[in-house]
Amino acid sequence: MGRGKFLSKLFRKALHSNPKGATLIEVLAAVVVLSMILASIPPVLMLLMDAEFKHNESRIAESLARCQIEYIKSSDYIQANDTNPSPEYPTVPVPDESYEIEVTAIPVNIHPEWSDEEQRYIMLHEPFETAGRDNGIQEVTVTIYHVGNVVLSTKNYKVSR
């Protein structure tokens, strides 16, 4: 008798010979299947918790950024000048210490002979005297940090009215 037939016959006999209770093979098979099912649950739960955390983090960051931009829009225009080349607008309160808000305002000088890239480079890298004066438009960047990592960064404009 071949080895495959022998094992098949042995398993069939073991599975069908004892009507009163489960055999050792049946119990071992059930334990193996159950342990495989239970082993797959924690990684799925970890992925779900991580996704929920990231969703909440981005939702809070978006809400903070919107509040900050609206706060800046409603506040008085802070004119940039030689002594204050980058105006500092106050920030809104954060939900806890793990969140931080960084606001930068850069005056936008409109020079027809300069391209947008040239104007941006000059405003960021040249001394304020070289770049020119505040013409009543500022590019405001709001960056939201959570536990030291950037979650969201958005730009808007503040206009002197």
Give your account of this protein's structure.
This protein has 161 residues and is an alpha+beta fold. The chain is 49% helix and 19% strand. The chain has a three-stranded antiparallel sheet, covered by helices on one side.
Outline the fold blueprint:
Blueprint: H1 3-16, H2 24-74, E1 99-107, H3 116-125, H4 128-131, E2 137-146, E3 149-159
Antiparallel strand pairs: 1-2, 2-3
Question: Which features does this protein show?
Answer:
161 residues, alpha+beta, three-stranded antiparallel beta sheet, 4 helices, 19% strand
Q: How would you summarize what this structure contains?
A:
By secondary structure, the protein is an alpha+beta fold. Helices cover 49% and strands 19% of the residues.
- Overall strand count: 3
Radius of gyration computed on alpha carbons: 33 Å
State the helical fraction. Answer: 40-55%
Q: Give the mean pLDDT.
A: 83
N/C terminus separation = 98 Å
- The low-pLDDT segments are none
Outline the biggest β-sheet.
3 strands, antiparallel
Q: How many H/I helices?
A: 4
> Which class of secondary structure composition applies to the elements?
alpha+beta
| Helix and strand run | HHEHHEE
What strand order characterises the main sheet? 1-2-3
**Morphology call:** rod-shaped
Number of domains: 1
Query: How large is the share of residues in beta strands?
Result: 15-25%
